[in-house]
Amino acid sequence: MATTDGFEALRAKVDELQGSLLAMECFLNALTEALPPEQRQVVSAFYASESAAFRAALMRSTAPESTVDTFERDVDRASRLLGDPPPEVVLPDDAPFDRE
Question: pTM for the complete prediction?
């Protein structure tokens, strides 16, 4: 009986987390849709940079394949929503550094 209670508690927590993630995704989708095209391009460039860094970390981790697959699926979906970053956008981390 204790195993069933533990499973039910775990299932309830997973359901709660799914609801939270869906609400967050809905909120981010609304924010993205509200952005002017120029700002969307800047966000898209930052998102491409951040997702590449997270992808590299995931590949070096022991994350299960299902986690990596879900990450890739959601990054693709968000990237389609944002649109492609323009090639001329230079992110602050990528800008040349002058020591004068």
Answer: 0.71
- What is the CA 21 to chain-centroid distance, rounded? 11
Q: How far apart are the first and last CA of the chain?
A: 71
Q: How far is CA 74 from CA 12, 16, 88, 93, 95, in A?
A: 23, 19, 25, 24, 28
Q: Check: CB of residue 84 under 8 Å from CB of residue 45.
A: no
User: What are the CA-CA distances from residue 8 to residues 12, 13, 79 (Å)?
Assistant: 6, 9, 36
Query: Which pair of structure tokens corresponds to residue 31?
Result: 């924010």
- Which residue in this structure is represented by tokens 């981790």? 61
The CA-based diameter of the chain, rounded to the nearest angstrom, is 71
Per-residue pLDDT of the chain (100 residues; tens, 9 = 90+): 568 889 999 999 999 999 999 999 999 999 999 999 889 988 998 999 999 999 999 999 999 999 999 999 999 999 999 987 666 555 555 555 454 4
